[in-house]
Structures are given as structure tokens and as C-alpha cells.
Inverse folding.
């Protein structure tokens, strides 16, 4: 049997791929972080479910592998893309002797970008500010390198109660490489009905308002605002 | 009327989002690079079509804006995600006084990643080696920064007849930051029926085989191979 690692996109049904939907429909068992069940409840009424809460990732992965080993097609659910900060890594690290298939999805940075205009367009760095599994110094080094390389930068997991100051510190490291007027897009609950979209500048980022459900997109040196949209031109020379 | 900038994902129908399909279905006019029409032909039989060839991007954008201005819901098609090296930027740069909506999609890096295992997982840099619109020195600087920051690196447009040596040069810049044994995934025609997937190491990249239809994913310092899959562990400390 196969263990499918399914990226369901940012949350709304419309941004799910056909394959994600069909894979969930055909599996016998669904394994998910409990709040994600809401996004797919109409697809899983007749299925065996294992779900749990925050920090339960590894237990979910182990359960999913067990279900697949016991002969049941199983889908383990990630939001966004399963291969970026999702479940594909832990599953491949853990699993032995089962078929595994990753179903890609729309990741939060691109969903947020679509709601902001065309802020990415060009070479970009995707960085998580969660230091739960990554040394904070390495994260800050990446921020610096992405700043120096004039990448558009998308920040995942920018701020939580447990680490309220990470974002502030990251922005301080980035400051030498970005004008105060650099456009910054802030999208909370991207792709969901209750999304909020805000456009600010580098020197006016409302740090206190930002939480784990938010993605920040920080422009490169060419990014500008036009008619309330954030635009990074495709050509570097012609702007 | 609305101009929709639609990312159809890597090519196969299964990786399109519901919204991309529904948007194409409801539009009166479709604007596309001619070869992309193949991916959606069954959806567009009754529609007005404008398509053209390579280097025709700006003409397509102008046409799409004209159609929308003339009162017709119009979809302009990008493969992958429309907001990364796609049509969202040029449209927003050109357009005035029309409604625009970007429909995000699965970009090639994540599609290729799903076919390789879990090679991205962590902070990553997406870089195009096309120097048509970007100074080559800036691209090389980004390669260096991404190398130094130990990002997983996805290379788009890695090599073409017009610039056969860009990839080689980029890899030389990256060399000081990557062990020879670093896993590298090479996926051609990701997400399509005729895809090919290859797993090599940094010192054995078959440069001559690589073309514009290929995406390369170069691991970070923790990436490893297990059972013919490329895996970047999620945790930095626990490996």
C-alpha cells in the first residue's frame, strides 16, 4: 500500500490540486493535525482518521507509516506544499519498506503573493523564523545572505508567543540591505476566507500584529507599489 | 471585466488547482504561449484564443490587457506559478484601470521536489540562470549567497543553447560551499508524462544533458540519499 504525503495548499478548497483531492478521496486512512480536518471534512466522512495537536508531528508520521504497513492506503495531510516545512521530510526519514508518494501543493508564499500583486516574480529566498529545529544563528545568517543577494524574501512562521522577538531581530539583520521604503506585504490566513492583506514599508512593519498564521514578503531593491499592489519587475535593467 | 493570470502548474492536469481549471472554463478569451495550449485544450474548445511563440511575452500581455479592456473575461496562462518568473509581473507593470487576479499554482521546484523525495523541506533559494533580463553578475552573487547561507537551491532555466556555459559557471561559484558528495536532483519535464528524474552528486552533474526544461535541486549540507530518494532533514540539530 502507499503512503501519500498530501499538500492541500493554503486552506481554501479552490487552491487544492485535482490530485490532492483525488488522493484524499481514494485513501482509506487520513492522518492530520486536527485543525486541518476542517479543510477537507466533506472528503473524509467515510474514512478512518488519526489526528492530534501541536507538536504531534512525529506521532502522526509514525501512525501514518503504521497504517500504510498494515495494508491501508493512507494520506498524511500538510497545508501548503508537503515538501516545504511539511511532512515529506519526517516521513522519508522514518519510513522503511513502504511506497511513498508526495503530492505537491501551493505553498503559502505563492498564495500570499497572488493576493499582494506580483511581489515575488524573481529569484527568492523562503526562510522560516522558527528556531525549534534550526539554530537561530543559522537562520540569521540566511537572512543576511538573502538580504545581501537582493532576493525577494518570504518569511514563514515569522512570530509566535514562544519567540516574540525573532522577527524584530531578523529585520535588524536585514536592515543594512533594504531601504526603509522597501515594500513589504503581510498576509494572514492566506488563501482562506478570513484572510487579511496589508501593504507596508520596511520601516513600518507592525511587528506586534504578526503571528504564526502570517507570511511576510519583503521586496528586493526594485520592488515598488502601484495602485495598492506590490510589484517586483521581471527585468532588472529596464526599470 | 477581469484579467486572470493563471498558473496551471507544471503541465499535467492533476497538478492544476480547482481554481485554475474553473477560471479557464469561465473566461471568454485565453492568451497563451502556443505550446501551453496543449495542456488545456479540452478546456478551451469554445473560446477565443490568442497565442504566439518564444519572446512573445510582452505582446501576449498587451493583448490580454486589451481583451479585458474590451469587456471580456480573459485568462493569460503561465506554467508553474504565475507569480514566479511568470506573467503576473509584466501584466501588473503594464496594466491600468482593469481588474486583475492572480491564480497561484504549483511551481516547478516543488513539483520536481515531490518526484525526488523530500529534497527541499527547509529554507530554500529559487534562482533562475537566465540572464536575459537580469545581469549575470547579480545571478552569480545570488548563487554565492545561497551557497554561503546553506540554502537548498533550486535552479530554474539552468541551461540553453544561447547560454550553454551559465550552469557550469554557477556551479563553480557554488563549489566552495558544497561538498562533492552533496546530492543533486535533476528533473526534466517535471509533472508531465515524459518526465525524467535523476539523482547525482555535486561533482557528477551531467552539465551537457541539462536544458531549459530541467530543474536542478542542490541539497544543503545535511541533505542525504536513502533508497534512491533525496532527503533534507527538517531538523538541523538532530541529524
Amino acid at each position: 500500500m502507499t503512503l501519500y504525503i498530501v499538500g492541500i495548499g493554503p486552506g481554501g478548497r479552490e487552491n487544492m490540486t485535482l490530485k490532492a483531492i483525488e488522493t484524499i478521496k481514494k485513501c482509506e486512512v487520513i492522518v492530520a493535525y486536527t485543525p486541518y480536518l476542517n479543510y477537507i471534512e466533506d472528503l473524509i466522512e467515510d474514512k478512518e482518521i488519526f489526528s492530534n495537536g501541536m507538536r504531534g508531528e512525529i506521532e502522526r508520521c509514525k501512525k501514518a507509516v503504521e497504517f500504510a504497513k498494515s495494508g491501508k492506503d493512507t494520506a498524511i495531510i500538510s497545508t501548503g506544499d508537503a515538501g516545504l516545512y511539511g511532512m515529506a521530510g519526517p516521513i522519508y526519514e522514518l519510513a522503511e519498506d513502504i511506497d511513498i508518494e508526495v503530492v505537491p501543493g501551493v505553498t503559502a508564499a505563492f498564495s500570499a503573493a497572488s493576493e499582494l500583486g506580483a511581489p515575488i516574480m524573481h529569484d527568492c529566498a523562503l526562510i522560516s523564523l522558527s528556531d525549534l529545529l534550526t539554530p537561530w544563528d543559522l537562520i540569521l545568517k540566511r537572512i543576511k545572505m538573502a538580504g545581501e543577494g537582493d532576493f525577494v524574501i518570504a518569511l514563514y512562521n515569522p512570530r509566535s508567543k514562544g519567540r516574540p522577538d525573532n522577527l524584530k531581530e531578523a529585520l535588524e539583520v536585514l536592515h543594512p540591505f533594504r531601504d526603509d521604503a522597501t515594500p513589504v506585504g503581510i498576509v494572514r490566513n492566506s488563501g482562506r476566507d478570513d484572510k487579511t492583506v496589508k501593504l507596508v514599508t520596511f520601516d513600518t512593519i507592525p511587528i506586534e500584529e504578526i503571528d504564526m498564521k502570517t507570511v511576510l514578503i519583503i521586496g528586493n531593491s526594485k520592488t515598488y507599489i502601484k495602485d495598492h499592489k506590490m510589484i517586483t519587475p521581471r527585468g532588472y535593467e529596464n526599470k
User: Anything to note?
Assistant: The radius of gyration of chain B is 19 Å. The first strand of chain B starts at residue 2 and ends at 7. Helices of chain B lie at 18-26, 57-69, 88-94, 108-116, 136-148, 166-174.
